[in-house]
Design a protein that fits this description.
There is one protein chain. By secondary structure, the protein is low in regular secondary structure. It has a single domain, classed as Herpes Virus-1. It is 12% helix and 10% strand. A 3-stranded antiparallel beta sheet has the order 2-1-3. The mean pLDDT is 93.
Length: 83
């Protein structure tokens, strides 16, 4: 099950579970659409994979399957490239 991380790893923008602004890679690295397009060119800086829109978990299922509250932020921003 997807963790649904709460923020963009680049700019720390809030990305709640219902956000249509969240994109992810296959490792669930999470970014906002703006950072993904402008800074990352739709390529994950952590693994090199592509970034796609994160699915939205239906509100009724969030009660029993909550989103993550753990914030992840790249220490040196998104310009640092693939780790």
């Amino acid at each position: 099950m997807l963790a649904l991380r709460p923020n963009c790893e680049c700019c720390d923008k809030d990305l709640p579970p219902e956000s249509e602004e969240a994109v992810i890679c296959t490792f669930e690295c999470t970014f906002c659409k703006e950072c993904a397009a402008k800074k990352l060119k739709h390529v994950c800086p952590n693994c090199g994979g592509n970034l796609v829109q994160r699915p939205i978990r239906p509100r009724a299922l969030l009660a029993t399957n909550p989103a993550s509250t753990k914030r992840v932020l790249k220490e040196f921003g998104c310009e640092s490239g693939i780790a």
